[in-house]
Amino acid sequence: MKYYMYDQESKQFTQAVEVDINTIPSQYQERRFNSDNEPYFVLKQIKAITLSDGSVIPQVPNGTHLEAPGVPEEGFIRVFLDGQWQVIPDYRKAGYFNTDTGQEVIILPGHKPTDKQTNIPRPAASYKWVAGEWVEDADARVNRLSQEARVKRDELLVGADLAYNIARDSGDDEKVAVISTYRQALRDLPDQAGFPETIEWPKY
Length: 204
Fold this sequence. Notes:
Elements (H helix, E strand, L loop, with lengths): L1 E5 L6 E6 L10 E5 L5 E5 L5 E2 L5 E2 L18 E6 L2 E6 L6 E3 L5 E2 L11 E2 L8 E4 L2 E4 L1 H33 L2 H15 L17
Antiparallel strand pairs: 1-2, 3-4, 5-6, 7-8, 9-10, 9-11, 12-13
Helix pairs in contact: 1-2
């Protein structure tokens, strides 16, 4: 005879244990009936049970059942809820996120996502959850685009500075003048009317 055990907190199926029902002392048994009105027994003791043959069942969960929980499909788990085995989606594998913080959260077995959780990841820190979707805050968007543009501008300036030094050292005054204009245009980038939404990147 097999007993099917589940975790007391999450209610998720953990393991099946083979037990001789005749060796279980009666004080550890509780008679119940299944949906077909057939009797079965569950173990009442949470602590380890010493059987009449001297063997021990360690840490038997309260309410361990004889009924098998079935085999779930990929992405589902077996849990014991409302007095019976149920197969429910395993939300832990889907990846859920807090709609207030955008941080990933763990959905415990036997639980469902709340209205404060979504399986849609936040695109960036500048986004807020509004009416069932991530919407970028206008001010935060400007700050993000501005920062991204300044990072790119600074990278271009590094290359321009190198090209300027090479042109100066080689005595190429015409190229020095062109690169000087280009470098100044990069520095003046934040002064453009459309910055940072619309940017005209200077070239040389």
